[in-house]
Specification:
The complex is a heterotrimer of chains A (327), B (292) and C (297).
Chain A lengths: L1 H6 L18 H39 L8 E2 L4 E2 L2 H32 L2 H16 L2 H27 L3 H7 L8 H25 L3 H9 L4 H30 L2 H6 L17 H8 L5 H38 L1
Antiparallel strand pairs in A: 1-2
Chain B lengths: L1 H5 L27 E12 L2 E12 L3 E5 L6 H7 L10 E9 L2 E2 L7 H7 E4 L10 H11 L5 H14 L3 H4 L12 H13 L5 E5 L7 H14 L4 E5 L3 H7 L2 E10 L4 E11 H6 L4 H7 L5
Parallel strand pairs in B: 2-10, 3-8, 3-9, 6-7, 7-8
Antiparallel strand pairs in B: 1-2, 1-4, 4-5, 9-10
Chain C lengths: L1 H8 L8 H36 L4 H5 L16 H33 L3 H14 L3 H16 L3 H26 L2 H8 L5 H29 L3 H4 L20 H9 L4 H32 L5
Helix pairs in contact in C: 2-12, 4-5, 4-7, 4-9, 4-11, 5-7, 6-7, 7-9, 8-9, 9-12, 11-12
The chains are: A mainly alpha (327), B alpha/beta (292), C mainly alpha (297).
């Protein structure tokens, strides 16, 4: 350590006086470890979620076995089949996607391809407002205002399609304001912001040169979107839709209030139903024993479903982004 | 640290080095002591060899210029001198770089300690998003100086040293981002000299500046070189002739087979000799504007 | 002359027929999609403001206890729920924001491109998609079963929700900090932690704060994670660390399921209060972004 000071030429002490060899300060190392542990916390929490909830649910899995996938749910009679909830989750999520995706992509295209920048900002603010309205407020409005109003419309549609083969069994009477369809509509409102913003991010990365190329060939805007924007953003938009699907499946409180709380499997979309998060929210409070374990187990299933969907979706989005950077 | 506090006096009080008043008078016998001694240095980024086999000595209280065409590795060599290349993932140095007799890349050498002595000014002025005062006080603070009075003193002497004091003394608490390009670069120089380095590395410090700001920086370099050893990378050959005592000319060696390019040191010597009487034909071609 | 006649012959009008029609239909549909989301948003906000404003009074905001469902809206007050929301969201913020910022620092400043950082970043994104009710079940299993219901348990659940959001938004902000600033600090002999704490974080602070505020707004409106972690009570509980508590969203949930008009009215009042809190957080976030926007390139 002293070697360095000695080699300095005579008369040039000063800045060179202290040694070059210096231990890395403890604080610096400590900070790195602290930051790393906070990063690892994400993985730890995810693993802990899986482990602890599965433990709580094991009673259900062991007592019911494969019967967890039957559709008899009657806690009073100790029947805990979850199929009706899985069905309801799928139905409401699909309704939400069918309604939200075209609208979201439409707004995303409007923002990126049509309106000038100074208009796009207010539009983005409005979409953000939609995202800030809490789930429970959607539920409150849904059950007290929207569902009673929808019920009239459902009744009109129901009597109009009554007797028509497919439509009749989907939309015929009897109808209820709190139903699969109402839940689907409310979920659609709630997932529109995320699908819009992700689609917009993807569409915004389409190279200007591709768009200009299409315009230079005399394409109309629609032809440009089909020829230049869509091929580039297809994958990313699919990822955005899947993320919206994950949200729609897990969104709890609004669905719990407007879905009608009736564990049935039916093709009838205007009838009351149930889905996985809603049944947990509504019944967990008074549950114990196998009942509580069953609700915990439905939570585990929901966790697994949403994790799978999110992993696929993020994978698609990330691969898309990487390919774009590579190109 | 205590010694260096006295080393920042106003520059008129500094003893003028007897060795060289002008570049022309210098001869081999009066060559100042060596600060850097690089031997057979090659620098790799991953598997790519950016620079091959550079050997040169850099002398105390001189301005040494690195010139050469784009991609010749002059910035890479410069960043090797204060271990800034450590920050580039995959960067690796082979050969020996000695700084005042100590090997820079020996195990146990802390890049932090190295950079405290060997400061750097960058191509684009990069003031921190802090006040002018805090920009200059940043270095002393991270080195443990928290005495308000001493910091005030350091800030003033450093800003004076960088010929910026008169322009900013009334707005020390304004953001450093509000300065013009030339002022911002002088702020960065002030920030660098505030930690009292031994060497200042300058990576094309004037490339983002207009000619007037460039002139100010060049004057400044002349003023401070009595206290610091300066190494400057420049694209501008006139600048090299104006400011430097010695010049190193780098060039690119293209390997036709693997289609890779590697920087090499072609010629190194007194600036006058490099520009007026180059020995290597490549140097001659470059300095006379026929290449690169 | 010939040139002029030729120019007159050139047809520079928009293409006719199906090409023009389809393009116009597409544009109209895009505008319609925006209008389609404007309607429910306007409808919800209008209803909440119209119904909530008539309930809200100083006594409603600061009075307690929360009366039973059967009583009309002008008795008692929402203070227990407002206090609970402030306590629990505040504690969740204190827990999640520093951890999230540090996690993002690991990802951007230390991890770089190594596999662990890639995994953590990916799983953190995945974690934003975990349903909020799962966070409630998780904290119920790991904490409530052993230590009972408390505001702290609710804060843990909300914190789990906020953590990945804070990591993602902070990470994006750190990425925007130009490398030249880091190098400037390194060249003065700063250690990596110094560089990060004294240069990188201050340069990104506006975006980090704004991202954190949006995460807080999201957490403040969440009900599902609180259902099984804090329960619902009618008296204010100033001790966030022990005893059952309540929150605005939980209270709205209870009231929304009630058939009594008084309870529903209180629900609207609480909803207006909650939306006001969330919107204020969002507006502050926007202002912070605008205030600090000049240092992001």
């Amino acid at each position: 350590m002293s070697a360095v000071t000695e080699v300095g030429p005579a008369g040039t002490a000063g800045p060179t006086a202290s040694p070059l060899t210096e231990r890395r300060p403890l604080g610096d190392r400590g900070f790195q470890i602290l930051a790393l542990s906070c990063g690892l916390l994400v993985l730890v929490i995810l693993v802990l979620i899986a482990v602890t909830t599965s433990q709580q649910a094991s009673l259900w899995f062991t007592t019911e076995g494969w019967k967890i996938f039957t559709y008899n749910w009657n806690p009073a009679a100790n029947q805990f089949g979850a199929l009706a909830f899985i069905f309801g989750t799928a139905v409401t999520a699909v309704i939400a996607l069918v309604l939200a995706v075209p609208v979201s992509i439409g707004i995303a295209l409007l923002l990126t391809e049509v309106v000038p920048y100074r208009w796009s900002r207010p539009i983005v603010y409005v979409i953000d407002l939609l995202a800030v309205v809490p789930s429970v407020v959607w539920g409150l409005w849904g059950i007290l205002v929207f569902a009673p109003w929808l019920n009239h419309i459902y009744a009109d549609i129901g009597s109009a399609v009554n007797g028509i083969p497919v439509l009749g069994s989907l939309f015929g009477p009897p109808t209820s304001g709190a139903s699969f369809f109402t839940a689907g509509i409310i979920l659609a409102f709630m997932i529109t912001p995320i699908v819009t913003s992700l689609s917009r991010e993807v569409i915004a990365t389409v190279p200007a040169i591709d768009k200009e190329g299409a315009y230079a060939l005399g394409a109309t805007r629609l032809e440009m979107i089909r020829g230049a924007v869509w091929p580039h953003s297809q994958g990313g938009v699919v990822g955005a839709i899947l993320l919206g699907l994950g949200r729609a499946m897990g969104e709890t409180i609004a669905a719990a209030l407007v879905i009608g709380s009736s564990p049935v499997i039916t093709s009838h979309l205007f009838s009351p139903g149930y889905n996985m998060p809603a049944v947990i929210a509504n019944q967990f409070g008074e549950a114990s024993g196998v009942f509580r374990s069953a609700l915990m187990g439905i939570g585990v299933l929901l966790f697994v479903f949403t994790i799978i969907i999110n992993v696929i979706a993020r994978g698609i989005v990330e691969r898309n982004a990487r390919r774009k950077r590579g190109a | 640290m205590e010694q260096s506090e006295q080393e920042i006096p106003i520059q008129t009080e500094l003893p003028k080095p007897a060795v060289r008043q002008t570049t022309g008078e210098r001869t081999a016998e009066t060559t100042p002591p060596t600060v850097f001694d690089a031997k057979n240095v090659s620098i790799y980024y991953g598997a790519f060899r950016a620079v091959t086999d550079v050997s040169l000595n850099i002398h105390e209280n001189e301005i040494t210029a690195f010139i050469g065409p784009s991609g010749c590795g002059k910035t890479t060599v410069l960043r090797t001198l204060n271990r800034m290349n450590d920050l580039v993932p995959g960067a690796r140095v082979e050969g020996e770089v000695q700084y005042r007799g100590a090997s820079l890349y020996a195990s146990g050498v802390s890049p932090i300690a190295v950079r405290r002595r060997i400061g750097m000014v960058f191509q684009k002025p990069n003031p921190f998003p802090k006040s002018i005062y805090d920009n200059v006080a940043y270095g002393p603070r991270i080195n443990g100086e928290h005495n308000k009075g001493k910091l005030n003193e350091i800030v003033e002497t450093s800003l004076r040293g960088a010929a910026l004091w008169d322009e900013v003394k009334d707005r020390l608490n304004n953001s450093g981002l509000g300065l013009s390009g030339g002022q911002a670069q002088r702020l960065c120089i002030a920030r660098t000299i505030a930690v009292e380095p031994d060497v200042i590395l300058m990576d094309e410090p004037c490339s983002a500046l207009d000619p007037i700001a460039t002139g100010a920086i060049e004057d400044l370099m002349h003023e401070i070189k009595s206290r610091y050893t300066i190494v400057i990378v420049t694209h501008n050959m006139q600048q090299a002739t104006r400011v430097s005592d010695r010049t190193a000319f780098y060039s690119v060696l293209r390997n036709e087979k693997s289609d890779t390019r590697t920087g090499v040191l072609v010629e190194y010597g007194q600036t006058e000799q490099i520009f007026q009487d180059p020995t290597d034909p490549r140097t001659q071609a470059y300095v006379s504007g026929r290449m690169g | 002359m010939a040139v002029v006649t030729e120019q007159q012959g050139v047809d520079l009008r928009e293409p006719r027929g199906w090409r023009r029609t389809s393009n116009r239909i597409a544009t109209v549909l895009m505008v319609v999609s925006f209008v389609v989301v404007l309607i429910p948003l306007g409808f919800v906000l209008f209803t909440v403001i119209a119904k909530g404003a008539s309930v809200i009074s100083w006594q409603f905001l600061t009075g307690s206890p929360i009366p039973p469902n059967v009583l009309p809206a002008n008795i008692g007050g929402m203070w227990p729920a407002i206090l609970g929301t402030l306590e629990i969201t505040g504690l969740a913020t204190v827990l999640a924001v520093p951890l999230g910022v540090l996690g993002a620092i690991y990802l951007n400043e230390y991890g770089g491109k190594n596999w662990l950082a890639a995994l953590i970043g990916f799983m953190s994104d995945v974690m934003t998609g975990v349903p909020s009710i799962i966070m409630g079940l998780f904290i119920f299993s790991i904490w409530v079963l052993h230590f009972g219901f408390s505001g702290l348990a609710g804060a843990f659940a909300l914190g789990c929700l906020m953590l990945p959001i804070v990591i993602r938004s902070t990470y994006e902000m750190l990425r925007l900090v130009p490398n030249s600033l880091r190098e400037g600090s390194y060249a003065l002999g700063a250690t990596k932690s110094r560089v990060t704490l004294t240069v990188v974080l201050p340069a990104a602070i506006g975006g980090i704060v704004s991202g954190a505020l949006l995460a807080v707004a999201r957490a403040a409106g969440e009900t599902a994670p609180l259902l099984f972690t804090i329960l619902v009570v009618t008296e204010p509980n100033p001790n966030v660390f022990s005893g059952a508590n309540t929150s605005l969203p939980s209270q709205i949930f209870v009231n929304a399921s009630s058939p009594y008009v008084g309870a529903q009215d209180r629900g609207w009042g609480a909803a207006l209060t909650l939306i006001a809190i969330c919107f204020i957080l969002m507006i502050v976030a926007r202002l912070v972004t605008a205030r600090f926007a000049r240092y992001t390139h």
